[in-house]
């Protein structure tokens, strides 16, 4: 697919686009729609996030409802399931003003069941929702080289494929609503299980008298060709991090994302009766492997297990 092109001039007029959530991923993705022929409307609670878009010619909306008054395709990149629900079905949400034929694309990594639930609610108003999680990080968003995994009908996929090409060079139709999220969870299961293995490998190397920093150099050298967990092997040692360490907020952020995605993957595994023993191990061990200890999700799960509640 050709990147950052808008090949709709010879067909129907381009649909006006809206973007809700201008964080580390949303802002660079939305920026690549600034020259979209149908126009761009953005929305974020922070004026410092919307001001650069206003200066570049985009319309700014105060609420998700205001976005839906102007846009026919609305992308959503917020933090979690609750925020997605609020944006879509809340009092000032998209559905309060959306016209039939509007399409909503949720790029946040949420539960696949949440995507299916919201899609059913949207369908009652003639609105189509697709789950369209992304992979490739902020760098891929800036470069327009993300991968996006779309769950939705064939018609919905056809409607979003060309617009998504502005910021993704791989657009995959994973299946019906929820399938995009299930593909993202499978991809991220591999990602975060590998991150957990990094800590184990570093501890083994240190115990064997090897230079942990040199091991990281070797892994990154090969991973520059093959890809892999060497992307986080930049520390000088494998010791636990302290809150004052520059790496601490970075690894805490990675841990929180990993625990969320792994918990979602484990829930999917239980529902599909697929054993995921390494994912179970990684869920409890990821924070330790990253040097910051377990996060709230892993601590809550451990407490439930101790109390005999299970997970």
The percent range for strand residues is: 5-15%
> Could you estimate the helical fraction of the residues in percent?
40-55%
User: Which assembly state applies to the chains in this document?
Assistant: single chain
**What is the average of the pLDDT values?**
91
Unreliable stretches, pLDDT < 50, 5 or more residues?
1-10
Helices and strands, in order, run as: EHEHEHEHEHEEHEHEHHHHH
Our count of domains comes out at 2
Physical arrangement of strands within the biggest beta sheet: 3-2-1-4-5-6
Structural class: alpha/beta
Total of helices: 12
CATH topology of the largest domain: Rossmann fold
Largest sheet: 6 strands, parallel
List the topology elements.
Layout: E1 17-20, H1 26-31, E2 40-43, H2 47-55, E3 59-60, H3 64-70, E4 73-76, H4 81-89, E5 103-106, H5 112-123, E6 128-131, E7 134-135, H6 137-143, E8 146-151, H7 154-164, E9 168-175, H8 179-207, H9 212-226, H10 247-272, H11 277-290, H12 296-306
Parallel strand pairs: 1-2, 1-4, 2-3, 4-5, 5-6, 8-9
Antiparallel strand pairs: 7-8
Helix pairs in contact: 4-5, 8-10, 8-11, 10-11
């Amino acid at each position: 697919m050709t990147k950052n092109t808008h090949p709709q001039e010879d067909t129907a007029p381009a649909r006006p686009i809206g973007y809700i959530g201008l964080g580390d991923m949303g802002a660079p993705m939305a920026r690549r729609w600034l020259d979209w022929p149908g126009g761009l409307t953005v929305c974020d609670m922070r004026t410092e996030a919307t001001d650069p878009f206003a200066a570049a010619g985009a319309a700014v909306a105060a609420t998700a409802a205001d976005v839906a008054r102007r846009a026919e395709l609305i992308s959503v990149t917020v933090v979690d399931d609750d925020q997605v629900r609020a944006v879509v079905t809340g009092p000032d949400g998209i559905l309060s003003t959306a016209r039939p034929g509007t399409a909503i694309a949720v790029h946040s990594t949420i539960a696949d069941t949440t995507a299916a639930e919201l899609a059913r609610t949207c369908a009652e108003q003639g609105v189509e929702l697709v789950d369209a999680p992304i992979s490739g990080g902020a760098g891929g968003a800036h470069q327009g080289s993300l991968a996006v995994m779309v769950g939705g009908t064939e018609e919905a996929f056809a409607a979003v494929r060309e617009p998504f090409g502005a910021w993704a060079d791989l657009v995959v139709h994973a299946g019906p609503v929820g399938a995009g999220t299930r593909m993202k969870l499978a991809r991220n299961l591999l990602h975060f299980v590998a991150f957990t293995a990094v800590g184990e490998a570093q501890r083994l190397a240190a115990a064997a008298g090897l230079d942990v920093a040199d091991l990281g150099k070797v892994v990154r050298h090969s991973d520059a060709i093959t890809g892999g967990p060497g992307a986080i092997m930049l520390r000088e040692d494998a010791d636990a991090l302290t809150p004052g360490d520059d790496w601490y907020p970075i690894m805490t952020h990675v841990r929180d994302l990993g625990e969320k995605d792994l918990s979602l993957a484990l829930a999917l595994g239980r529902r599909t009766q697929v054993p995921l023993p390494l994912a179970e191990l990684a869920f409890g061990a990821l924070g330790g492997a990253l040097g910051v200890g377990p996060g709230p999700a892993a601590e809550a799960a451990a407490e439930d297990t101790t109390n005999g509640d299970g997970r």
